[in-house]
Structure formats: C-alpha cells, structure tokens
C-alpha cells in the first residue's frame, strides 16, 4: 500500500496573512490544500491519504473532502506543535493499516504543483532503496555565513541541491527514525530524511522540478495563480 501524508498543520506566518494559514488560501475557487489533494487523489499509485491539519480547520476540511469528492482521504490527523510531531502523529494514526514494506509519501500541502512523475519515482525508488528525497540542483552559488555579516565559506555548487517534497520511505524505516529521534531527545527536526540519516541508513535522490515550489511568500502565491491560469487557458 502507498499512503500519502499531506502536511497542512503549519501556520504559514511568513505569508503575512493573519486570518488563515497559507494552505487554506483560496486560489481560483478552492484552497491550496485541495489543489494538492486532488493530485494525490487522482494518482493511480496512491491508495490512501492522511491529512495532518490544524484542529480549527478539521470541520472545514471535512466539508471540502465531500464537496470535491476526495475519496482517498482516510484520515484527518491532528497537527503537532512542530513538523516532526505532525509527521509522527500521522505515522501513529496509520500504523494499524500499514505493514513494514508499505510506502509513506510525505508531502507539503503548500506544494500544489507536484507532478505525477515525481510521485511515481518516489514510490518506485522508495520500494527499491527504502528512503528517498526529492531535490533539484542549485543553479546559484551558495554562500555560507555563520554570523550574517561576513562570508564563512563558499561550498562547491555541484555538490549542493535544494530539498523539496515528497520525501518517501518504507513504513518500517520512517517509524524507526521517529522512534529513535524521540529516544535521543530530538523533538523539532524539520526534515524527515535527516532523521533517517541519523539511523545510519542511506537516502537516495529523486529528481524534482522547479514548478514543485513551496508557497511561502506572496510572490510564490502570485506565481502559482499565473501558472494555474496559463494551464486553464491551455485547456480551452
């Protein structure tokens, strides 16, 4: 079984919008979260979906799931105080339905342009290797500074990638990684692959896409609207 875990438990404070988190912002008649869920619901490789959601939005989400007939969503999971806690909550909720070799595809709700190719390769390579991350090569030189005032070093660009989601794992591996993190006192990790690496397991790479960007700022939101509008025009 392939289970998508969609993370919609954040507050999105960097957007500067105070009345709602970014994943619930309306874009052409539906929330960003629903745009993302529709991709996974329609994907033939996805068997079930768990949505990690802020408590105050569970009722709204339930209404949207019925309205847009998103039938693969089997669990609405309580969001945690941190990303790590949110993911762990989902892992615990789906435990009774998963065996060790089932694949868990963890994806940000605020990346609504993820392609079916990325999802497919995540599943295929996670089955083969156990753990994968979606990344794209950086096209810019990365500058490292320790104090924000002066350059500390300039890493070799060909060795650097920008992380995206999905991050996908065999269920047994992601469960072990989160159990070990809690045991080791790690409670606020922002990346599941780092937790897997802490278990001395390899994480392999899936090639991402520039369009699989995360909605973080108003500029990102404007770009998303433009891309969706162009797509609609292309369908006419």
UniProtKB/TrEMBL annotation:
The record marks 14, 22 as: Transition state stabilizer. Pathway: Isoprenoid biosynthesis; isopentenyl diphosphate biosynthesis via DXP pathway; isopentenyl diphosphate from 1-deoxy-D-xylulose 5-phosphate: step 2/6. Its EC number is 2.7.7.60. Keywords: Isoprene biosynthesis, Nucleotidyltransferase, Transferase. The record marks 157, 214 as: Positions MEP for the nucleophilic attack. The keyword Transferase applies. PANTHER family: 2-C-METHYL-D-ERYTHRITOL 4-PHOSPHATE CYTIDYLYLTRANSFERASE, CHLOROPLASTIC, RIBITOL-5-PHOSPHATE CYTIDYLYLTRANSFERASE. This is 2-C-methyl-D-erythritol 4-phosphate cytidylyltransferase. It comes from Lutispora thermophila DSM 19022. The gene is ispD.
């Amino acid at each position: 079984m392939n289970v998508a875990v969609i993370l919609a438990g954040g507050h999105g404070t960097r957007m500067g919008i105070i009345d709602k988190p970014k994943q619930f912002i309306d874009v052409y008649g539906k929330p960003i979260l629903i745009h993302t869920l529709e991709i996974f619901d329609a994907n033939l490789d996805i068997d079930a979906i768990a949505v990690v959601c802020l408590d105050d939005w569970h009722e709204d989400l339930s209404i949207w799931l019925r309205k847009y007939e998103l039938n693969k969503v089997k669990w609405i999971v309580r969001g945690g105080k941190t990303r790590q806690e949110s993911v762990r909550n989902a892992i615990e909720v789906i435990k009774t339905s998963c065996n060790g070799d089932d694949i868990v595809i963890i994806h940000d709700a605020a990346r609504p342009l993820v392609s079916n190719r990325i999802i497919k390769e995540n599943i295929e390579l996670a089955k083969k290797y156990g753990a994968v991350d979606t990344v794209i090569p950086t096209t810019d030189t990365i500058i490292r500074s320790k104090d924000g005032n002066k350059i500390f070093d300039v890493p070799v660009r060909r060795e650097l990638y920008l992380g995206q989601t999905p991050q996908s794992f065999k269920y047994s591996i992601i469960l072990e990684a989160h159990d070990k993190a809690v045991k080791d006192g790690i409670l606020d990790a922002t990346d599941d692959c780092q937790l897997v690496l802490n278990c001395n397991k390899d994480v392999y790479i899936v090639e991402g896409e520039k369009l699989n960007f995360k909605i973080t700022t108003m500029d990102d939101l404007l770009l998303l609207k433009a891309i969706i509008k162009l797509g609609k025009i292309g369908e006419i």
